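Table 4 source record.
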Amino acid sequence: MNHSVRPSLTPAQSSRTDGPAYLSGFGNGFETEALPGALPIGRNSPQKCAYGLYAEQLSGSPFTAPRATNERSWLYRIRPTVAHWGSFEKVDAGLWRTAPCTEMDMPLAPLRWNPLPLPETAQTFLEGIHTVTTAGDVAAQSGMGSHIYLVTRSMRDEYFYNADGEMLFVPQQGELRLWTEFGIIDIEPGEIAVIPRGVKLRVELRDEQPARGYLCENYGGAFSLPERGPIGANCLANPRDFLTPVAAYEDRDAPSTMTVKWGGNLWRTELQHSPLDVVAWHGNYAPYKYDLRRFSPVGPILFDHADPSIFTVLTSPSETPGTANIDFVIFPERWLVAENTFRPPWYHMNVMSEFMGLIKGVYDAKTGGGFVPGGFSLHNCMLPHGPDMAAFEAASNAELKPHKLEGTLAFMFETRFPQRVTRYAAEVPEFQTEYTGYGRGLRKHFDPSRP
């Protein structure tokens, strides 16, 4: 067996001294090579590529998409993808579900779950996907899936790519190493990674410690940075803090499998070599990571509570301006200073539907217990929700001095589509049946004699 793994020689930035190297910037036109001279100069497809490589283009948008949204990369690889192909057979998708999925009709109420426990058996990333909700229609390339991943074993000689959508990883416990055909990405709790549609990868555990996290499967337009509007040119998520891996490749000849998610089904073929064999690449269609601790929040500094849209990290656009296919929103550490203001999120009903997870700490609208790190909730389209009684009473009577929320990080996958709960999620023991009525505990304070 010949097995070579070589990092790029391109100067790069790394978030860890013992980890892989990265190139910084969001949506840049990158170029990186793991062997000197592997990248053609001034052209994409020479008659003969250096080192006997094959040129292959991976397109994330139609060829005729406007320049601002046109996504493509040129890969220079040991074998083209068509050579990483065989006779595919349909395999069991386990608990992975894809929209439209109408397995269950849930009550018209807020829904919440305790953390799913890590299994005692060996389970790879592909075996450990547990779908909670789906929305939209994968065939129409709109909507999303919200999943929990539980991983206790690294993928070895096992490879995967998702043709249905891009994948947003949000770790909550344990670290992952994502070996992609573009290079290597390490992520830990507090970081995220996005793997574009069609990019091959292998998911490994760092230090072989089990991992749990959240996964957003985006069937629609690729995640991009939201417009800042009146905020201007700075704050929120800054482009320089997004990191794309430098080129690294495997020249591995050994029995392997490749699984492809296509049309909501998993298909698998046998290979005799690794498909992660890209020696060099250039373009703007590539995986990336981001440290959520570098998000620079803005907020109200005199009175009233701003809309949660100010905490949007990434957005997947729809054909309707201002209406997202998906918004990825976080609620990080921050100062609360507003005067004469109820500071937690207000009570509301929203045309968007909200899947929320908690990475660490306590979420300020749910201080009464029950929403703990690793847990998740669903507040669907046009269904009421807001602070629990403990949060309301505390915030209504607190001394309004400057206060810093520390040690907390929550997030939302917010979509314009109603989210349908899977049968698994509806029947799992971690489903909190009592949460649906939490609002009934709010006391009546009305007194017409006291304004």
